């Protein structure tokens, strides 16, 4: 194998690795977007809605005042 051919192979490998890294980042972003959509569409049964947090805060404040 010639030196030029070896260099070409090395460049191809480096380019491919960079492309794979880019695809991994894109996949991670896509998976995060899908997870975000799932949370909006199908809330976790143990997740407390923000309105409940507000009500809980009011109840705790009232208890502290008494």
What can be said about this structure in brief?
This protein has 66 residues and is mainly α.
Would you give an account of this structure?
This protein has about 70 residues and is an all-alpha fold. It has one domain. The protein contains two helices and no strands. It has helices at about 5-40, 50-65. The radius of gyration is 26 Å and the shape is rod-shaped. The mean pLDDT is about 80.
Question: In the residues, how many domains can be counted?
Answer: 1
Distance between the termini: 86 Å
* Run of helices and strands: HH
Taken from the alpha-carbon principal axes, the silhouette is rod-shaped
Structural class: mainly alpha
Please, what is the average pLDDT?
81
Using only CA atoms, what is the Rg? Answer: 26 Å
Q: The biggest beta sheet, please?
A: none
Range of strand content? under 5%
Describe how the helices and strands are arranged.
Blueprint: H1 3-41, H2 50-65
Summary tags:
66 residues, mainly alpha, 2 helices, 0% strand
């Amino acid at each position: 194998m010639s030196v030029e051919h070896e260099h070409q192979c090395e460049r191809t490998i480096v380019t491919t690795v960079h492309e794979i890294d880019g695809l991994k980042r894109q996949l991670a972003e896509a998976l995060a977007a899908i997870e975000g959509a799932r949370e909006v569409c199908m809330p976790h049964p143990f997740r407390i809605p923000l309105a409940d947090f507000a009500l809980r805060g009011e109840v705790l404040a009232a208890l502290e005042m008494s």
